[in-house]
Amino acid sequence: MSVTVGIPRALLYYYYYPQWKTFFAHLGVKTLVSRETTRGILEKGIKSTVDEACLPIKVAVGHVMDLCDRVDYIFLPRVVSTARREYICPKFLGFPDIVRNNIEHLPPLMDNSIDLYRKGSSLYNLFYSVGKEFTHNPVRIMRAYQASMAALNNHCRDMESGRLPFETCDSNRHNRQDQDVGVRDVTIAVIGHPYNIYDHYISMNMLKRLRDYGANVVTADQLPEHVFRREAEKLPKQLFWTLNQRMVGAAFYYFDRPEVDGIIHVASFGCGPDSMTGELIERFARRESRKPLLNLTIDEHTGEAGMVTRLEAFMDMVRWRRQLDYVAATYY
Amino acid sequence: MKVVYPHMGLMWICIKAMLEYLNVDVIVPPPSSKKTLLLGVKHAPEFACMPLKLNLGNFMEAAELGADTIVMAGGCGPCRFGYYAHVEHAILRDLGYQYELVVLEPPQKHIGDLLDKIKQITGQQSWRRVINGIRFGYHKAEAVDKLERMANYCRPRETTAGATDRALQHALQEIINVAAPEGLPAALQRAVEIMDAIPVDIHRPVLRIGLVGEIYTLLEPFANQDIERKLGSMGVEVDRSIYLSEWVNEHLFLGLAKNTRSSKLVKQKAIKYLRHFVGGHGLETVGSTVFYAEQGYDGVIQLLPFTCMPEIVAQSILPRVSAELGIPAMTLIVDEQSGEAGLVTRLEAFVDLLARRKQTEEALA
């Protein structure tokens, strides 16, 4: 008998999917990823969550509902902490409970914790408790765990070499983003949570659009961990949100890079951590840098035209600004 | 050095007492008002939660009175509050305010960090005196909480409208006036006598509502539009899930003072619905709702500032708790857009529903 485990294409899927997939594959368990975000999935999510929840949570609930009837288990780890003395966000801590208390007819949830808050804790705890459900052989779990860690390392290296998570997550995508052609004369850094900027529906294909406008896109995930952590130390106090640490560190880093022409900060409406770090980034930009910064806030009402207009205007400004700099450098 | 700290309900009484006992110059910002909020909203990030905006407004108003040092609590997440002080400081600096910032928080590396910061505020006072000062502040908090509890009991039962509020002001004044720990028991005695003198009708049937939610909106009357008084005047006895002294005891003294209500029990009750802490008071909100249901309260009102992350988790879970335990629960979200009339309408409707429900139950029984 083969069981199927469902993995929602939401939240930390973009960072950890290769690892999870490898782990389950080594245990002989089939995995099924929810379909790509659509209007339908978002609508379902919106209906089953409180209005005040942020967009990523609504989308994630929609993805869980998409999986409901098709799988035997849903893999929904409780992401407490992925680094020492850091959290992700309170909503991640409570997400399995939000799902459990709002959706009827759920398949069993595997909501074991990812908790690296304390010194000496390891991801193994998560995988051991999940693996136990499928096999009684601890050696098999250990092997699967090791293979999954190797997959995770590969994934991180892939990202650092410039590929974006969705490109490494499923390699047979029909519209591979790196196949488009054209001259790319500017470099734009897109800073945002992975589940906002890599989800084609939520971000309204922002990355592809920017590339079509002739921009080279870089994101926070292409920086090795030690780089953004070093940059983030410029803050007066270490941030306790891992994802935002990455965003702030990356923003500071890209503000300093001469080849980066502009920065886009993407936040979802009502995101708690972003409201703080967005402010810090903006103030940093104003004080220390002349690079253009675009602050984009997205929610479930985002209109595509509004986004396009702002991106186009931003690109024009970036090019114009660069030209001015060039002129100034030539004549003065 | 003139020290300022943000308002949170009646907390200023305790901190002022503590710092003045330690011979520190204190500037208490004017009570939070529309003006405070406007100042905060103008300069704070758009979807930061309301407490940050009010804090910022407090600091800006205090600067006009000559304050030059901010003392704030910190934290290590995942609630945003842990980063408040630094964001506020950055905003104030960009606005041109020359504030010194002292953040009291659980030390990252060594307990010495925290002690250094306390020394920075208290100067050359002996540690013994510092500890006495902290105890003095704590006892004042206890006294204030006791008076507030008495007021919540009296308000729905008072025979002349407004008598409770007038008495509470007098009683609080007694506590505020005490400058040394020795005088506190006598002052508390006098204050309690004032409260006891309120004429009440103890046989009057009242509804009981538990207030749960985020600490700042629960404690700060400006943030919650004085919900306790409004409910009291509608004939509702209110119990708050968080009182300042209990919070201080649990989070700062790690439960050193015994015989107080502890959130441990409440957290255990929440486990069935929410299996992990979510920062802030999310877990306590769920647990307290269960607790109030078990205690036979007529309803629960959850208060939270817009975009508060832990409370949104709790809010998603409350409908299930409410349905399973049969306790009506209403969520009120406050931000700078909240209007008083809207709140009153909703409270009246909620209280009417509860009264009707109770009537039906009694008729059936």
TrEMBL record, chain A:
Gene3D superfamilies: 3.40.50.11900. It holds the Pfam family DUF2229. PANTHER family: BIFUNCTIONAL PROTEIN [INCLUDES 2-HYDROXYACYL-COA DEHYDRATASE (N-TER) AND ITS ACTIVATOR DOMAIN (C_TERM), BIFUNCTIONAL PROTEIN [INCLUDES 2-HYDROXYACYL-COA DEHYDRATASE (N-TER) AND ITS ACTIVATOR DOMAIN (C_TERM)-RELATED. InterPro entries: CoA_activase_DUF2229, Dehydratase_Activator_Redct. It comes from the Bacteria. This is DUF2229 domain-containing protein. Residues 4-222 form the DUF2229 domain.
UniProtKB/TrEMBL annotation, chain B:
It comes from the Bacteria. InterPro entries: Dehydratase_Activator_Redct. PANTHER family: BIFUNCTIONAL PROTEIN [INCLUDES 2-HYDROXYACYL-COA DEHYDRATASE (N-TER) AND ITS ACTIVATOR DOMAIN (C_TERM), BIFUNCTIONAL PROTEIN [INCLUDES 2-HYDROXYACYL-COA DEHYDRATASE (N-TER) AND ITS ACTIVATOR DOMAIN (C_TERM)-RELATED. This is 2-hydroxyglutaryl-CoA dehydratase, D-component. It comes from Sporotomaculum syntrophicum. The lineage of its organism: Bacteria, Bacillati, Bacillota, Clostridia, Eubacteriales.
